[in-house]
Amino acid sequence: MGGSQGISDRHACKAALARRFDKAAWLEGADIPARNLHDAGYLPPTPPLGVVRPNDPQGFADAMAICASHGVPVVPQAGLTGLAGGAQPIAGAVAISFERFSGIEEIDPASATMTVRAGTPLEVVQRAADEAGFFIPLDLGARGSCLIGGNLGTNAGGNRVIRYGMAREMVLGLEYVLPDGTLVTGLNKMIKNNAGYDLKQLFMGSEGTLGMITRAVLRLYPKPGCTCAAICGLARYDDVLALLGAARRGLGPMLSAFEVMWADYWHEATVTVPNVRRPITGDHAFYVLVEMQGMEAELDAPRFEAWLETQFEAGLIEDAAIAQSMADVAAFWRTRDAAGEFVTFLGRHSSFDIGLPVGVMDQFAQECRAALSKALPGCLSVYYGHIGDGNMHIVALMPGAAEQPGKAISEIVYRTVKAHGGTISAEHGIGLVKKPYLALSRSKGELALMRRLKRALDPQGLLNPGKVIDLEEAP
């Protein structure tokens, strides 16, 4: 893309896009909105060559084909809520935004499926399912602004993975655009379909590096008849593990969330962040949010309370509060979701999304906290997450520092993750930010196979280049 030939190709590409799309769909120069210059991470804004905003699948295919024919790279952009730089523009690339391709195309009650456009906000998908008498279990804090295509492209996790699995397990069919502009439609509605390779799995979790998801067929689930929740205070991590085992046995498939907050996180969430109510008093080493989704409140609510009483009698729980209403459930979740407001009340910080064997999580937290404090005296780090499915989140910062030592913090955290047999990314993806550390979680053979897939589908390296994996191994 360098030199006069590259400049000529970019000009020709812009001219072709301007001919194909109207002024509402093709933006360049001063017309590019500030939101399209970066995603939700801390990478500096980067103006793309232009932003194309198709409103139908063929528009996405045409935009990709035009860019491919001129050798111009493309960066797909969904809700721009990602934290790993996966939607970060690069200079000289065209950003393809899904914001104008939104809507529910069909709800099929007989097959219990919903066909959605990739630009539909997750919250809209959830609401449509609810109004139709069904349930979409995928849920995360950015539900109002993240788009379903981005959720699938990153294989989002969220709050209920312990019961329903990751985003890919909620998808039956996909439509996507390949790096050469080919539109592939596979909007399957059947749970059982073993007719050849399950191609959709290539694109979910690929972060837009192998193809752009345009439409999806989602599985719909029965709407829960009741939701029961409790916040529990525990003294030891062994008790947390015992409570998790008891919840799996005693609540079975109704267990929908098991969130654990270490005491350091609890303090910041309920003291530093205003308007977060503490459901229980006293100080505890661990705080656990247990949620159960049942079908009949008359039967399942007493069952949940009886299960909780049994855990008291077993000596696992020091104190607990049981939600008496959906308002209480929301208030309990607010303690867990308060992390989304840390940037406002703690300032700029490093945020981590890691996976670990559940049994070593507290050992990891202790060693990581000690390593950060030793290398960076005064460093604040807090620990919390979806522990029931092996996902821990970490927030770390130097309070009051004008410049945060993000790289030094990342090196310590990821080195400690590797030492405990974990993964550097449980649900947020790799993007640009975590790419230098990918080899800590993937073997040489796995990395080589990723490159082979990338070369096979995108031999020019035009689709979301520089993200996740490069075509060639770094020297």
TrEMBL record:
Pfam family of the protein (one): FAD_binding_4
GO BP: respiratory electron transport chain
UniProt cross-references to InterPro entries, sorted A to Z: FAD-bd_oxidored_4_C (IPR004113), FAD-bd_PCMH (IPR016166), FAD-bd_PCMH-like_sf (IPR036318), FAD-bd_PCMH_sub2 (IPR016169), FAD-linked_Oxase-like_C (IPR016164), FAD-oxidored/transferase_4 (IPR051264), Oxid_FAD_bind_N (IPR006094), Vanillyl_alc_oxidase_C-sub2 (IPR016171)
UniProt-listed SUPFAM superfamilies: FAD-binding/transporter-associated domain-like, FAD-linked oxidases, C-terminal domain
Domain FAD-binding PCMH-type: 44-223
Keywords: FAD, Flavoprotein, Oxidoreductase
GO terms, molecular function: FAD binding; oxidoreductase activity
Cofactor (UniProt): FAD
Family of this protein: Belongs to the FAD-binding oxidoreductase/transferase type 4 family.
Protein name stated in the entry: FAD/FMN-containing dehydrogenase
